[in-house]
Fold this sequence. Notes:
The structure is a single chain. The protein is an alpha/beta fold. It has helices at 3-22, 25-36, 53-67, 82-111, 119-150, 158-164, 166-182, 188-200, 252-255; strands spanning 203-204, 209-210, 215-217, 223-224, 229-230, 235-237, 241-243, 263-264, 269-270, 275-277, 282-283, 288-289, 294-295, 304-305. A 5-stranded parallel beta sheet has the order 1-4-7-10-13. The protein is globular, with a radius of gyration of 26 Å.
Amino acid sequence: MDVDQKDQHTCRIGEELTSQYRKKLPGVVDRILDSCRQDSCISHVDYDPIPSTESVVGIIDKLREVVFPGYFSKEKLDPVNLSFVLGRTVTMLFELLSQQISNSIRHDCMRYSQECSDCGERGFEAAMALLDYLPEIRDVMAADVQAAYDGDPAAKSHDEIIFSYPGLYAIFVNRIAHKLHEMGVPLMPRTMTEYAHGLTGIDIHPGATIGGRFVIDHGTGVVIGETTTIGENVRIYQGVTLGALSLPKNAGEALRNKKRHPTIEDDVIIYSGATILGGDTVIGKGSVIGGNVWLTQSVPPGTRVIMEPPTLTYR
C-alpha cells in the first residue's frame, strides 16, 4: 500500500470512529433531558426573563467610566468633549440599568409567584436613583483612593491606585451593588460583587455597610459578610475574614436578615489572616487587630490584640 492509500485508509477509519461515537449522542441527550424533568433538577428553563451576567458586567464597566472619567473610556476625554461623552455614557447606562433591574424584579415575581410590583416603573426609578447617587459615590471613592495613597509608601500616585489596585476595584463594585441592595433589587447586586470576587479574590457581600476612606491592602482572600458594618478610615489586609459564627443545622431561615457579622468601628486596622466572627462582636474605635488573631468577642476602643510570638524549632 503506497503512502496516499495508507493515508486515505487511516482517514476512513477515523470517520467511522467519529460516526460510531456521534450516534451515541442522542441517547446521552435523552438521559440529560430525563434528569431535567425531575423535580430535583437545577435548571432555568422557563418563560420568565432572567438577568444577563454579560450585561451586568457591561454596566460595571460603564459605571467605572463615569466614576473615574478618562481612566477607562475607550476614547480620550478632554474638557471639550467631556460633556458629550459623559452624557452619552449616562444615557446608555440608564437604558442598560433600567432593563436589567426590571428583568431582575420580574424574574423573582414570575418565578416565585409574587404579586405584581410594577417592575417596569421600578426599573426606571432604581436606575435613575443609582445614577443620581453617582456624585456621592465619586466623593467617597476619591476618599478611598486618598486613604490608600496615604497609607501605602509603595503607591507612586493616585493614578496607579485607580488603574491597578484590586482592593479599590472590589470596593467600587461593592459601593454600587450596596446601593442597589438597599433599593431592594434582587440578583444584580450579588452578581456584581461575585464578578469582582472572581477578578480580585475579594469577597464582599453587597449587604455590607462600609464607611469612607476604606482600604483593602493586597486583598486576596478577604471575606466581608452580609451584615458587617465598617466605620470610617478602616484598613484591612489580605486574608481577613469578617464572618458569621458556625450555624446550627437548618438555622438558615431563622437567622436570615439577622445581624450575624461583626461591627468594625472607625480608625481600626486589621492585619493579614485575622478572623473576626459574630453579630455581637464589636471592634472598638482605634483598635489594632494583629495577624492571624481569632476573635469571637468584642474589643474595647483603643485596644491592641496580638498573638504571642510562636516558638521556632530548628532541627
